[in-house]
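Sequence in, structure out. Go.
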Amino acid sequence: MKVAIAGLGAIGRALARKLGAGVIPGVSLVAVSARDKEKARATLGPSLAQVAVVDVGELAGLADIVVECAPAAILGDIVRPVLEARKKVMVLSVGALLSRPELIDLAKEKGGQIIVPSGALLGLDAVSAAAEGTIHSVQMVTRKPVKGLLGAPYLEENRIEIANITEPLRVFEGTAREAAKGFPANLNVAVALSLAGIGPDHTRLEIWADPHLTRNTHRIVVDSDAARFEMSIENIPSENPKTGRITALSVIAALRKLVSPLRVGT
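Output:
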């Protein structure tokens, strides 16, 4: 299976290193896209000299699956050509899908597929299973270090200052859809949770800025007719404080499932 990566930020770089090291038998990294191609080639280094550095629109023609690791604003530019080519695209900026439902329609029309990995969350298989019955409620509380939330549009629009707080501060309470708009670089996990369960308008969310934390934490409570369960996770941030290290590993695990003779988990 040939893989291409759209974007070489913290997640894209980590993913390129893993795939370049051959961690999944039968899976190879063939191309990446980046705005600055020379910088991208320097980032890949001599060990990945065989990997093509191209424009976003060229990825679909080179790979069987494209992994989106780019800013949410260019999601359509990445996903559309892949779906037009009737191929698979793995999306990390899942929050941006809520404002681009036409991409899901395109996948259905062309026979392509949009894959959303678990990312920095856990238990999406349990939520998906519960959704085959009736889920009564899904509640999520996210707590992040201050630097992981700085610059979020919701904070700037509502003039919420968190840079110098000394105690935990709740900065948001609402739905997953509202969180996706206000925190586009921070709450893709909430949208993934909502899509696995009862949707972005019924999944409730609190966001806290906590100056005492060094990890991104998420606690989820699901009540359904099949089970009531609670989940919590503490993610170690990557080079980008808005993203956990486990996100890139989640992509590797999802790619492995696509080619493995034994697949464990829903």
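Check: The two ends are 21 Å apart (CA to CA). The chain has two domains: 2-120+246-259, 124-235.
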